[in-house]
Amino acid sequence: MKCLAVFLLSAGLMFAQATVFVVRHADRYGAEPDPDITPEGQREAVALAKLLADAKVTHIYTTELVRTQQTAAPTAKEFGVTPAIVSSEKPDELIRRIRGTLRDGEATLVVGHRASVPKIVRALAGREVTPLEAGEFDRLEVVTLFPDGKSSVVLLRYGH
Fold first, then answer.
1. Under DSSP, is residue 59 helix (H, G, I), strand (E, B) or coil?
2. Are the C-beta atoms of 63 and 88 separated by less than 8 Å?
3. pLDDT-derived band at 5, boundaries 50, 70, 90
4. Of 41, 55, 127, 155, whose CB neighbour count within 10 A is largest?
5. Beta strands, E only, 6-158
């Protein structure tokens, strides 16, 4: 019986993983200096929260810009998580904080920007992803990190 318990415990550890959802902020008004998200962006943010409703999101990271915080708000409310704000000027700090909070079986949401989403995926998974287009607000990069150091990246779309 003891051997069975050890086997089941080790089997569970072999398959445990952490998931990081990386998105760009939702549709926003104009470009400068720090615009709110549009009504379409609000619908996108709600669609993201609905998509992630069963994902066990325990950590959320945004930048200091209001559009990332507004995009994360419905998901934060869904899970009762207070988003951590990390300066968009400190990408290394963001990656360090994400890695420091990864837990097996839990998920993290990161809301970034057009230029930062591919960089975040590359830093976490070591994989290149296609750069985002100017009007692309519906891309969800799903990064799965396995205990053995391997990773996978899956591209999903939401909100439309």
1. strand
2. yes
3. very low
4. 41
5. 18-24, 57-62, 84-85, 107-112, 139-145, 151-157
